[in-house]
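Protein modeling request. Please complete all fields; requests missing the sequence field cannot be processed.
Requester role: graduate student
Desired output: 3D structure, token encoding
Chains: 1
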Amino acid sequence: MESMDDGVVTPKWRKFLRVYMAVEALAFAAIFACKLNPAFTNTKTDQKPESQCSDNCLPGTRKKPGLSVHPCCYECVPCSEGEISNITERVNWMKCTEEEWPNQKKDRCIRKLLDFLSYTDNISIIFISLSVSFCIVTLLVMRIFIFYLNTPIVKANNRNLSFVLLVCILLSFLCVFLFLGQPLDITCILRVMTFGVIFSIAVSSLLAKTIMVYIAFRATKPGSYWRKWIGVTLANSIVSVCSSVQGIICLIWMSVSHPFQEMDTHSYQDKIVIQCNEGTVIGFYSVLGYMGFLAAVSFVLAFMVRTLPDSFNEAKYITFSMLVFCSVWIAMIPPYLSTRGKYMVAVEVFAILASNAGLLGCIFLPKCFVILFKPQLNTQIYMLENKKQ
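Delivered output (389 residues):
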């Protein structure tokens, strides 16, 4: 072997020293790298190693202890309805307010949608179109009656009541707009007031027409007691008294507990229903009950006198109109009680349009048909001959 003599390093030892120094440098570099890497270091000497057998619970879920006895093992369950979890590894849920609802991920609360029959809904557009169309038809009928004001058909059965009925039908078609849009306290009050009073005047006019038909038949007999009742005074009195009763019912209802806007946050989970609260159910059903009573009395009387001989007996047309009127409102009751929100309002609007269209079609369109297309029947001579037969 070679040795080092007098400080002289042999080539073999020089090579050995180089290898040793290289290995030592690599060792120091590895130790320095471990010091800089946090995975291999622990700055807190008292920190214990964590043990976890489940994944972290993301927002929208919470921890639920599993069947294992180890606390590190748990399940991640989704949030319940109306609750959110917006922090990872949350144990409890956060409940949204009544005006809010969780989003699809259930990690934050969002505002609930407002639900009411707005003017932009498809069904509202249909209702508006029908209401405007029926108003135009009603105005045309009024124009025809004014132009042929002194003809026998127009004068038959009190033409003043006919114009009162036409005005009521026109206003009823227009009151449909009170049921559209977001309900307010004032619109909730106007709905029931206009609906109850206008319909009562219309049905009272039909009742007065029916009574006048019966009186006119009885007054044809010589020395009849009924002659003194013929005239506009009795008809106007019937309309005034019957409609005033409905007005008093509405005033009592408004003074006790008037309708108001209501925010229903419980019927649906994801939306707020804005509707009209009737205030007191007794008042609401009193208005409907009285209107139904007038319609029933008018229907019965018109049915009884429908076969009486007269030049132009309007009672048979009133019978058909009251049959349509009563059928529509009776058929409305089941869907009205089984729906909520804007669909309940849509049922009311449909009943208003259908019942008014029945009155307009059954009473006035036959007269307009005779006036426009069969003028030979709208003469005094034909009326007298038909009355003799």
